[in-house]
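[User] Once you have settled down, look closely at the record that follows, and write a paragraph about the fold.
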Amino acid sequence: MKIAIHGKEFNRVVAPVIARIFEILVQEKATLYVSSKFSQFLKPPLPKEFTVYNPGEPLTDIQLFISIGGDGTLLESVTHIGRLDIPILGINTGRLGFLATISKSDTEDALKKFLQGSFTLDKRALLKLETNKDIFGTLNFALNDFTLVKKDSSAMITIHTYIDGEFLNSYWADGIIVATPTGSTGYSLSCGGPLIFPRSGNFVITPVSPHNLTVRPIVVSDASEIIFQVEGRSKRFLASLDSRVASVDSSVKLKITKADFKVSLVQLEGNHYFKTLRQKLNWGLDIRN
């Protein structure tokens, strides 16, 4: 079995967990590929039996991609995989983790369940950004969200928004978010957006600090074509796809559609999206007790 691994810098508390991951995979005689960024943090007694790869290099015949970190690390992992339909197992060594749902204490059990085939694949839709200027190159997709926000700390911006050619609204705001169902638990949620079930087939458009209090998030079909034209006193604005950020100006036309491929997240037996929501959002807990 060929397995690729990506992670972030870790502390002494996490080191034994990572060491155990490598130990189990070596025992299973897996062929390991480690991202160049993560390999810099791996030191003895961790095994050296792995091949280092650079993001952008083709990961051929990989049967599992392990992301070790938080949701941000998993989003980075998606860019390493791209269109390759490689299952991603997210091990959470961070804090909240809506995507990287495997806790440090459950890591060993999770690996054993995967190796035994006790899992399903949760297919998640992505969005795609098209522009009249090359901004993000081939990484013009996002699992969580696209954002367009002001660069200047003082001036709001105006974002003219069209859906399938029909004018929706001119948002006077600090910015705007287009989130997938996966990304509905992220930045969009903190700005008042709704939670969306992953298989709903929707995008949510959420304004960031709108200057008109009657403006609210709106849910649209992910078959829609969403076009933005932005203007403001500032000449530059910030566009982002997940954690990747670029500076743009008002001459850039931005179109959002659904990507023509999906990401496969490993879902172990006994786990479900609703269970993750209950755990991460503390639903059903009485804070008075």
